[in-house]
Amino acid sequence: MQSIDTPRLRLRPMVEEDASFLVALLNEPAFLRHIGDKGVRTVEDAKRYMEGPQQSYREHGYGMAVVDLQESDAPIGICGLVRRDWLPAADLGFAFLPEYSGRGFALEAAQATLDFARDELGMDEVLAIVSPANAASLRLLGKLGFGDAGRTQPPGEGQPILLFSLHLPLERAVAETPMAEHRLAG
Length: 186
Fold this sequence. Notes:
The strands form two sheets. Strands 5-4-3-2-1-9 form a six-stranded antiparallel sheet. A three-stranded antiparallel sheet has the order 6-8-7. The chain contains five helices and nine strands, in the order ββαααβββαβαβββ. The longest helix is centred in the first third of the chain and has 18 residues, at 43-60. The protein is α+β, with helices and mostly antiparallel strands. It has helices at residues 19-26, 29-34, 43-60, 105-119, 135-144; strands at residues 3-5, 9-13, 64-69, 75-82, 91-96, 125-130, 147-152, 161-167, 183-185. 34% of the residues are buried.
């Protein structure tokens, strides 16, 4: 997986040095409530968790990426595409530390991920799955143009979740804000 630069962010593959950051992010109350408990409590747990995204990079050329601030290289969240065998297309995922919410970082990272999916991976559709109670993620998906695609039942989960779909146009739409523009970093 290659890194993606936006005006304020860099989306990059997860590396071993991200383990402490992932322990903090994956144990945030909002993450646990809306996404779920990944069982990551220690640095060693986080290193095992990273094996999934790293395998996805090798197999698919994409996966969940760490989102860093360009100005400081500080990790603030994760964003990327996940290929689940129970969904017909890749889905967009994202989570950010609470102190970075409300500043447009999730929108900027998600738009860059969608542009990458279309422009570099040739995808024409991306899905998103969301807990019905996750109002912030629902607002973000609306801003990105995702449409309601019903409900889905993840294997082994008790409750159905909401499913959304976005058809990616073949030609890049004119960006409404400079945040939607990005470049790939080599």
